[in-house]
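Tokens as discussed.
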């Protein structure tokens, strides 16, 4: 059977190509070659980086700590406070960073939400450390060091001399309170964005002495450091939380004691100890300004500056997604960061002196989810996997080139070791075998039509049409597409745009263009985890499945996921992760991977320097204090 000619003919006339845009657009390649090759390093040469990093960028100081290939939790030794010296980069100080976001925040408490509030949380609060997934590099912030003294004990040394904005000291009691409140908020609210896997292995957070905080664990966790880099673990002033917070509920501990739990969705003054304080926050946006008493960051670390951030203030505008307002404002020179540029937008960014477009490997997801209750027989799932014309998909959907996707993101090349050739052992178009498998498969619920839910987002719409047509033609089935709101994340609960049947066979999820990573492996694996999206999005790829074969497989995968998460030796963990990925692909489990874009693009103002382009595909970009602005 040939490729899908009807679908390809609809895409004729699309003129964007990677060669064309690279030739005319002045694209800065941000580590693409190294990461696509899976080498892990992405430090670019000065000739390749343009304005992104080559303008007098500081060499990362020696305190920056690369995750050791032999251990998942390297140690950083605290350094004594150095005598202040004249700042050789004083000319970089000043200016206002101009940002945008699509909507007001839902609240500022870092232990509850992470959507729409990074402009405040990352500027006014201190985090323990930060992480650069592309380099597998940790850099300490509020902590001066840490040590994994044994598999169940992590000891933190808190940076001396820090104060909250109201003058209260940042000490081990405050840090233990900030970490320990997350599980309690999660329990009493039930709607937290916080990933419970960051704390569900912890027995207690102990204030050992004034500047030492110890985590006592009930089981090992190799991702603990990356979890602590998330903004959830920002330092909060317990005195302010308890005096000015809002009561969320009462937490009942296992020993029978109870505790009132408070949130600070408005972050009253004195809540934080970060380099900025809030000057404005309303329906039009926010403004934060330098806090003059911010502690010195000695020694400097990757992305951090001894004397605090170079930039004086951040101004963030609220601009609705719907009408292209942010793009127009950026192209007029009113913003310093636009963010991800969709492929269809790329020509608009060509030939503009005030614009710098950075190209980096795409971290996007493009998945086909299957209802486990209906596709309980592996042969049926295998049939779907072999009925997709992957090369035809790349030709039709990926004008800048595509690549085969693994269960673990390619933005984590130190963990994701399956090659493109190896992935094609599973992601291979075999229509005759697909039909034979489908015919032989057992169906508790007969299927003669595949109904697929897809958002109205244009790229997802095209993906849905391609996949639906492929499955229909190969398997001899009728197919239907059902559409929902592109900004609704819980597809099963989304209001439909064009009606919806009571049940569905499949879900198209993700465009495969834009995407990033926090560095936590669960970001990738949650889509296959029987305790994650395996039960939320598709139902019944879960341990409690009424189908014995699904239940058995769910138990097997759960044990494999737990084993890799608890493995503290780096090389052994890589082997276990490769086994997990092979198992998912062998069993066509839960979600099928569709080819993703080879690259993605982010746009910045050419006056912004040392902004580490790859970081903008992570949650950590705004913490880079070494960013600076060329004076107008």
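Sequence:
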């Amino acid at each position: 059977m040939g490729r899908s000619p009807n679908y390809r003919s609809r895409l004729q006339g699309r003129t964007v190509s990677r060669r064309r845009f690279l030739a005319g657009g002045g694209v800065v390649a941000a580590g693409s070659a190294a990461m696509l090759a899976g080498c892990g390093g992405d430090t670019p040469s000065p000739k390749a980086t343009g304005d992104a990093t080559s303008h007098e960028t500081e060499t990362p100081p020696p305190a920056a700590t690369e995750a050791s290939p032999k251990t998942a939790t390297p140690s950083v030794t605290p350094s004594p406070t150095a005598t202040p010296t004249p700042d050789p980069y004083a000319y970089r100080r000043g200016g206002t960073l101009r940002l945008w976001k699509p909507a007001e925040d839902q609240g500022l408490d870092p232990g509850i939400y992470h959507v729409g509030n990074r402009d405040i949380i990352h500027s006014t609060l201190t985090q323990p450390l930060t992480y650069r997934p592309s380099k597998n590099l940790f850099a300490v912030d509020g902590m001066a060091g840490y040590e994994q003294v044994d598999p169940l004990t992590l000891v933190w040394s808190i940076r001396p001399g820090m104060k909250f904005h109201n003058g209260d000291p940042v000490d081990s009691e405050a840090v233990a309170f900030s970490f320990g409140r997350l599980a309690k908020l999660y329990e009493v609210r039930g709607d937290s964005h916080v990933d419970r896997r960051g704390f569900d292995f912890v027995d207690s957070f102990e204030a050992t002495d004034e500047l030492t905080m110890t985590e006592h664990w009930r089981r090992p966790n190799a991702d603990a450091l990356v979890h602590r880099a998330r903004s959830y673990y920002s330092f909060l002033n317990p005195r302010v939380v308890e005096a000015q917070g809002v009561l969320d509920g009462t937490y009942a501990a296992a020993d029978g004691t109870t505790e009132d739990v408070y949130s600070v969705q408005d972050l009253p003054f004195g809540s934080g100890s970060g380099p900025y304080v809030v000057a404005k926050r309303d329906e039009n946006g926010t403004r934060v300004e330098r806090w003059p008493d911010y502690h010195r960051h000695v020694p400097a670390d990757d992305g951090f500056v001894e004397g605090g951030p170079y930039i004086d203030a951040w101004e963030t505008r609220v601009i609705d997604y719907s009408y292209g307002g942010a793009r127009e404002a950026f192209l007029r020179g009113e913003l310093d960061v636009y963010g991800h540029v969709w492929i269809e937008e790329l020509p608009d960014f060509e030939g503009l002196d005030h614009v710098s477009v950075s190209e980096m490997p795409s971290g996007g997801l493009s998945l086909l989810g299957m209802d486990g209750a209906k596709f309980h027989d592996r042969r049926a799932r295998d049939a779907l996997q072999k009925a997709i014309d992957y090369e035809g998909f790349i030709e039709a959907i990926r004008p800048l080139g595509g690549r085969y996707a693994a269960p673990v993101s390619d933005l984590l090349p130190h963990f994701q070791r399956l090659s493109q050739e190896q992935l094609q052992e599973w992601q291979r178009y075999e229509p005759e075998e697909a039909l034979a498998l489908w015919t032989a498969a057992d169906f508790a619920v007969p299927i003669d039509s595949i109904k697929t839910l897809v958002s109205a987002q244009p790229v997802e719409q095209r993906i849905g049409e391609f996949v639906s047509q492929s499955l229909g033609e190969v398997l001899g089935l009728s197919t239907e597409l059902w559409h929902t709101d592109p900004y609704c994340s819980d597809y099963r609960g989304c209001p439909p745009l064009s009606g919806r049947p009571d049940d569905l066979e499949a879900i198209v999820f993700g465009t495969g263009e834009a995407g990033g990573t926090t560095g936590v492996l669960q970001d990738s694996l949650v889509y296959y985890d029987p305790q994650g999206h395996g039960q939320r999005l598709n139902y019944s790829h879960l341990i409690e499945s009424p189908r014995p074969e699904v239940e058995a497989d769910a138990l097997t995968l759960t044990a494999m996921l737990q084993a890799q998460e608890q493995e503290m030796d780096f090389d052994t963990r890589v082997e276990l992760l490769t086994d997990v990925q092979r198992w998912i692909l062998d069993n066509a489990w839960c979600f099928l991977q569709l080819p993703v874009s080879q690259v993605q693009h982010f746009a910045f103002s050419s006056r912004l320097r040392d902004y580490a382009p790859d970081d903008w595909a992570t949650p950590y970009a705004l913490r880079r204090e070494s960013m600076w602005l060329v004076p107008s």
